[in-house]
Write a structure and sequence with these properties.
two-stranded antiparallel sheet, single chain, extended, 21% strand, 162 residues, alpha+beta
């Protein structure tokens, strides 16, 4: 079985049936199920997610991206700081980055005040965190490869002729 092709198919459509996957991969349903189970147990597949446009619901939700600078610790580098940050429910994603800051932290809350309190009371006091910069998301256009607006935008690129 082509594991890479299986992963690409699941990435495009995590809801695809096992039978359809078997057809696409030209294999049996049992082989697909066994491979998916193996990939989940070895954390190659880490989850199946739904992208929701919360702006179209009647739900208060605020998202922010926080740049976090930190000081690495001997023998563990940045891993210990990352583990401390990742444990908070407000944190939806966490990345070690190159550039001006060591971490990029994505958080969600119900209000800007809730996120500000998270930064001031939970994130900034972590040992090893030296500074934070918080940017609130104003509008999401594309999330995880999915456009948030359903209307087709007119192609405004200029036609080039020779």
């Amino acid at each position: 079985m082509d594991t890479l092709q299986l992963l690409k198919a699941l990435e495009q459509n995590p809801r695809i049936s096992t039978a359809d996957l078997a057809d696409v991969l030209n294999t049996s349903v049992e082989q697909v199920e066994a491979e998916k189970d193996h990939l989940e147990k070895t954390h190659v597949i880490c989850g199946y997610h739904t992208v929701i446009n919360w702006d179209r619901t009647n739900t208060d939700r605020v998202s922010a991206i926080i740049e976090v600078s930190g000081k690495p610790e001997r023998d563990v580098g940045y891993d210990k700081i990352a583990q401390r940050i990742a444990r908070f429910d407000e944190v939806t994603s966490l990345y070690l980055m190159s550039g001006n800051s060591e971490f990029m932290v994505f958080v969600e809350g119900q209000t800007m005040r809730e996120i500000a309190d998270f930064v001031g009371q939970k994130l900034a006091p972590i040992d090893g965190v030296t500074s934070t910069v918080t940017c609130f998301l104003l509008k999401k256009y594309k999330v995880e490869g999915v456009m948030m607006e359903s209307e087709e935008l007119k192609d405004e690129r200029q036609l080039i002729t020779a």
